[in-house]
Amino acid sequence: MRDLRPVLVLAGALAVLCGTLSRASGAEDPMQAVFARMDRSSLAFKWMTASVQKTAYTAVIDESTTESGKIMVLRARPHELKLRFDFEPPDAKQVAIDGTRAEVYYPKTNSTQTVVIGKQSKPMVEQLLLLGFGSTSQELQSAYTIRLLGPDTAAGEPSQRLELTPRDKEMLQHFRKIEIWIADSSGIAVQQKFYEPGKNYNLAVFTHIDLQTRVSEADLKLKIPRDAHKDATIGKRQSPKP
What we know:
Strand order of the largest sheet: 7-8-9-10-11-1-2-3-4-5-6-12
Number of domains: 1
Shape: globular
CATH architecture: Clam
Order of helices and strands: HHEEEEEEHHEEHEEEE
Number of strands: 12
Low-confidence stretches: 18-27, 237-242
Structural class: alpha+beta
Mean pLDDT: 81
Largest sheet: 12 strands, mixed
Strand content: 35-45%
């Protein structure tokens, strides 16, 4: 039975992509300059497409797995996000996420699965979405303690690296800290890393980011064959465990 943890990671992976959209602020404090760009982006972001490479590291076996694909994001209204992942073989799958559920289609088994984001898990998903997608710096600071780690390079881009520690105790049980890299040239987050308790982590690198091409509701619908098998819904009668 697949659980909600991949959904949380995917939500976070998408959320950081649109940290800021405008040019750097003239503020002397580097942290405040990043915050200023985030505040400007909250009015500008509507949709996005990008390539993503996601790596999951498991410490107990000292092994990592990598998958690549495409993502599409649509913000129809403030705080209302809809998004879709299309991962390539060998572990091909399509994932659609909105504020209430995640739907996954597995071509290999021609099967689908739905994860209902219940009341218990919804706050965690919402906090991860605060990492970008039109959120203001005030909203981000209300959910995370933020530390500027300084300049770095990510996805070939000179960037500013930020460390975020969740303020919510339940969130800390799943992610002890999160790091994001905001590109100096575009103000877009091009890399992010989720640290789980212990030494496990998930790393996502974003390239070919497009904020101009329109994304519609139809684009976000999964391409599921009519004869696909439907697995049991997770969280239908109770809140799913992350």
